[in-house]
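Translate sequence into structure tokens.
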Amino acid sequence: MKLSERIKQRHFVSPAQEALLNILVTSSWLLNELSALMAPFGVTPTQYNVLRILRGSHPGKLTCTEVGRRMLDRTPDVTRLLNRLERAGLVTRNRSSHDKRVVEVGITEKGLELLARMQPVVDAAQERLMRRLSPEELRLLSDLLDRLRVDEDASEEASQDKTGT
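Result follows.
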């Protein structure tokens, strides 16, 4: 369904407004699809993202700050998210041996097993959700979305320069 039909708006202030609204509506649709897909496994898309990040560093561990930096959805409350995953037995958290102020996070065997069970379902959903676009169109879409986030990258660099991190 076209955006104009979905939101019952025939005219847009500009192509930029139409594109932005289209991205927001599509993002919401994809997130709802993924949430429904992951609910039977007892995790949210954000929790799944954290588990994938930790699987990528396994058997190593990451600091809470590094997990937050790598997340797709930059939630400000990484600690609460990790609390839920730890209560479910999917991650472990320990104080660093070299600096007791630093908490290191790792994925458990239970977390790895959950991701292994989810992988075929997630892969199939990915194919289903993206099936209307050719591989070339998907690459173009990714390139265009990367270009949109140039401002995000610049503001992130400026923020890091101010804080010295």
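Note: The two ends are 45 Å apart (CA to CA).
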